[in-house]
Design brief:
This protein is mainly beta. A hairpin with an 8-residue loop joins strand 16 (about 260-270) and strand 17 (about 280-295). The longest helix has 13 residues, at about 1-15. It is globular. The termini are far apart.
């Protein structure tokens, strides 16, 4: 059915019934000159960060304007004018933005929590539900890596890192800065004050030129505008090499040592039991620890942590695993999230797919379950060096884990080490890199299992990778890696040679110019590929994929975009034995109202080499099975006070039917209180049996101010009667210094509902001091 839909719509378009504007594209080429602006040095104390831009100093600072649309049209001038000014003194970089709006009463500004102004949209980050502005800074002008600061008319804080011009931002990076905003009848104004201690920039005392860009979204129009890189061919805000430039920075401050320390003190109580029949084990915690950060040289930072605590990290989402492979749970611990992009090696996959290969997955550090990265985190301490050295990006990390938490078995002393190096490569069309990475995990020999395929006493991986643009919107990326496992039987049991079965590699070409989006990739994982410090859900695999299609702008029925994408996905074993084959496609409609609808269909077959259990309950025999999929997703405009997401996915596979249906609703009450609830129904019916489960979720967020936020997250999984409750209050009493009150409670085991599994009560205070 989906195939007939796609063919019919494609034929309709090719017949020209919608006219030439369906592929409308800006006339300006991607090679157009980048805009420039200048920063002005001002006297210390001349600017007060109140969001008003009324200080006399601002009247002397030149303003950059000329924003142009990226959405809904490609290239026309912005509907509403935006002016940007940059000033600095011996302590801070100041950025003032005046966002004019003739219909200021329709400005949307509800978000107050930190790091919520922009959100992950699957393949890229974008603005969330509010009017907002974002500023990009590339101090080293390397055209690949940048810092991002954003806010909305409430003055909510957002900061993130961009690595290698990736559309996926690391929004978990957190630094110290101030921002304030004010609204009036003509729009809104914002002021950023970013301490130079929070920035990394070249050491020279002479004039400096930084990469610089600004983006704005007008939510009532769903209009996104940029100062530079506005063309869809340019790639938008994440395309760092297409940013404009900021000049006029000179004699920037240098600090003798530039050391900051962040001690914390914690009082808590934890209880846990390993299984339903085990005794409840609990203890009272009185704990102190320390994080330190030292800029060893300009752009190169050494981080140290002693006895770190991650109690404020939110609980993982309860899910029902319907696949043969491990689920992927993202990292949530703050220390590992900062500069995480430096240590990326491999591929994160597409859509909701688990990453096929990551050489380094930080959740393996201190995790009780080495396959998924879940469990306690007995991290004793570690060091991390990361940053820029000339035209190179470097990273090195070593972490030590040992011990246990209440109710869990003790883990041996284990060292996790990572080494990363990247070298800039400049092409005519953009910037790229070549790189090297090594990971090594070591534990005492006596703790190693006899199975060489399990997490052993030593597991080492090393590889090379690279990526570069060879067209305005076309990027080539690749990696090659080899994994070595050592246990008490020796190298791979001393019986297997190091051959292609230990290798992993990938080559991919991606193209996205706003009119066509295409992907072609080949990925191979040998049968003995393991990543002791990484994530490999499915070794012994060769995958070939070609997927993509056009985007139309039909201007009928209120549509903004219509996207068609289709292609085959072929998987075989490493020895080329038959495995999985799918041919499928998507039809996505996006309206000017910001509502979206996606229809997905696929046909193919799957092969199970051995019997397996769905969620450890319902058996699937080995064999060759037909595959069909039909999925419908509708998401309403998230900027409305009431928004919904509906999904219905049916897959006929493994000789039966796998049906998932979910409904989610989010409601904003009075501009502050936000509540979200969802229900997911999982229904499996195969010849060997049936499985029916519901997963219910409830989220509540109450930001009293931008610095004082209450949140609650509750979950229930019917499959094993698991209930998980998480409540947190965080108060930022000064920039970088916080007070946390956290309650986490998990109850229920298979057949024993309500029995306490784990409970944590924590009060924690941290203090950031910047020295020398």
């Amino acid at each position: 059915m989906a195939r007939r839909w796609c063919l019919a719509i494609l034929a309709y378009c090719l017949c020209g019934l919608w006219g030439p504007h369906v592929f409308a594209q800006a006339a300006s080429p991607a090679s157009q000159p980048r805009p420039q602006t200048r920063a002005l040095r001002v006297a210390e104390g001349a600017i007060t960060v109140d969001g008003r831009l009324t200080e006399p100093a601002w009247a002397l600072v030149p303003a950059a304007s000329g924003f142009r649309q990226r959405e809904p049209f490609d290239g026309p001038p912005a509907t509403e004018d935006t002016q940007v000014q940059v000033a600095y003194d011996d302590a801070n970089l100041y950025i003032g933005i005046r966002a004019h709006d003739r219909f200021a009463e329709h400005i949307v500004s509800r978000i107050r929590e930190r790091d919520q102004v922009m959100v992950d949209r699957g393949e890229a980050f974008g603005f969330a539900s509010d009017d907002a502005v974002a500023v990009l800074l590339d101090p080293f002008l390397d055209g690949r890596n940048a810092m991002l600061f954003a806010t909305n008319p409430n003055g909510a804080e957002f900061d993130a890192l961009i690595t290698d011009e990736s559309g996926s931002f690391n929004q978990n990076w957190r630094t110290v800065f101030s921002v304030a905003a004010t609204r009036d009848d003509g729009g809104y104004s914002v002021e950023f004050a970013i301490p130079f201690r929070s920035l990394r920039y070249p050491a020279n005392s002479g004039p400096q030129t930084w990469g610089f860009n600004v983006a704005r979204v007008v939510r009532r129009l769903h209009e996104e505008t940029l100062w530079s890189a506005w063309s869809r061919v340019d790639g938008g805000l994440a395309r760092v090499s297409r940013a404009g430039t900021l000049q006029g920075l000179e004699a920037l401050p240098r600090f003798p040592i530039n050391l900051e320390v962040k001690p914390y003190a914690l009082l808590g109580r934890d209880q846990a039991r390993a299984d339903a029949d085990a005794q409840l084990v609990g203890n009272t915690q009185t704990q102190v620890g320390l994080d330190a950060k030292w800029e060893a040289k300009p752009g190169l930072v050494l981080d140290a942590t002693v006895n770190p605590d991650f109690s404020q990290a939110e609980l993982d989402q309860l899910r029902v695993n319907l696949s043969r492979f491990a689920l992927f749970y993202p990292e949530k611990r703050e220390f590992f999230l900062e500069n995480a992009g430096v240590f990326d090696f491999g591929t994160y996959g597409y859509y909701d797919e688990a990453p096929p290969y990551l050489m380094f997955f930080s959740r393996r550090i201190g995790a009780a379950d080495p396959e998924t990265g879940q469990g306690p985190t007995p991290v004793r301490g570690g060091l991390r060096l990361s940053g820029r050295v000339g035209q190179q990006t470097v990273g090195a990390m070593t972490m030590v884990t040992q011990g246990s938490v209440a109710g869990q078995p003790s883990q041996p002393l284990t060292n996790h080490a990572v080494l990363r190096w990247k070298r800039d490569v400049t092409t005519k069309r953009g910037n790229g890199y070549v790189g090297f990475m090594l990971t090594d995990t070591r534990a005492p020999w006596e703790s190693a299992p006899n199975d060489a395929q399990a997490l052993s006493a030593a597991s080492t991986s090393l590889g090379i990778d690279g990526g570069a643009f060879f067209g305005d919107s076309t990027r080539l990326s690749s990696f090659y890696a080899r994994n070595v496992v050592i246990n008490e039987q020796g190298l791979q049991g001393a019986t297997q040679a190091l051959d292609a079965a230990n290798d992993a590699y990938r080559v991919a070409v991606e193209h996205d110019d706003g009119r066509w989006k295409l992907l072609a990739e080949a990925t191979t994982l040998g049968s003995r590929v393991r990543a002791g410090s990484g994530f490999v859900p499915r070794p012994d695999m060769r995958r070939f994929a070609a997927y993509g299609g056009p985007t139309f702008r039909p201007r009928v029925l209120g549509l903004r975009k219509l996207t068609i994408a289709a292609g085959p996905w072929v998987l075989t074993g490493h020895d080329w034995r038959k495995q999985d084959l799918w041919v499928g496609g998507d039809l996505t409609l996006e309206w000017n109202s910001n509502d979206t609808f996606t229809l997905t269909g696929a046909l193919g077959h799957n092969v199970a080499d051995a019997p397996w259990l769905v969620s450890a309950r319902v058996g699937v025999p080995a064999g060759d099975y037909d595959y069909k999929q039909s999925q419908v997703v509708f998401a309403s405009n998230p900027s409305r006070r009431l928004s919904v997401v509906l999904l219905n996915n049916v897959e006929w596979m493994w000789g039966g039917r796998f049906w998932q249906a979910s409904a989610g609703v989010n409601v904003v009450w009075g501009g502050r209180l936000s509540t979200g609830a969802s229900v997911t129904r999982v229904d499996v019916d195969v010849p060997a049996g049936k499985l029916l489960s519901y997963v219910n979720e409830l989220r509540v967020s109450l930001p009293l101010t931008t610095r004082w936020v209450f949140s609650f997250y509750g979950q229930h999984r019917q499959l094993d009667d698991r209930i998980a409750l998480y409540g947190r209050m965080v108060y930022t009493w000064r920039p970088g210094s916080d007070v946390f009150l956290v309650v986490a409670d998990e109850r229920g085991f298979d057949g024993v509902p309500g029995r306490l599994a784990q409970q944590n009560l924590v009060a924690k205070i941290s203090y950031l001091a910047r020295l020398f």
